[in-house]
Amino acid sequence: MIELIPAPSHSPTTTANLGSLTTPPCYESVIWTISHETIEIAEEQVRFIIYSKIDLFFL
User: Fold this and answer.
1) CB within 8 A of 17, min separation 6: which ones?
2) Domain count, the chain
3) What backbone torsions phi and psi does residue 17 show, to the nearest 5 degrees?
4) What is the pLDDT of residues 18-35, one digit of tens each?
């Protein structure tokens, strides 16, 4: 499977926060990684996210 976004670099340019899913059942098992820099992704990655029949919440 293609990588959806680059792995976090654990550098001062990223912040990690504990949280939950944004849609029901809203499990509180998510680590949100926020990048302080723009992350570019390929058109193929965008198409994968939009057209995938895989439940991306549980990858």
Assistant:
1) 31, 32, 34
2) 1
3) -130, 140
4) 998 888 888 898 888 888
- Please name the residues in contact with 3: beta carbons below 8 A apart, sequence gap of 6 or more: 45
Domain ranges, residue 44 = 1-50
Question: Using an 8 Å Cβ cutoff, are 37 and 53 in contact?
Answer: no
Say yes or no to pLDDT of 1 above 50: no
Could you tell me the pTM of the whole model?
0.45
Under the banding of pLDDT at 50, 70 and 90, the label for residue 49 is: confident
Query: Is 56 inside any structural domain?
Result: no
- CB contact at 8 A, 20 and 30: yes
**Secondary structure (DSSP) of 31-45:** EEEEESS-----HHH
Note whether residue 41 is domain-resident: yes
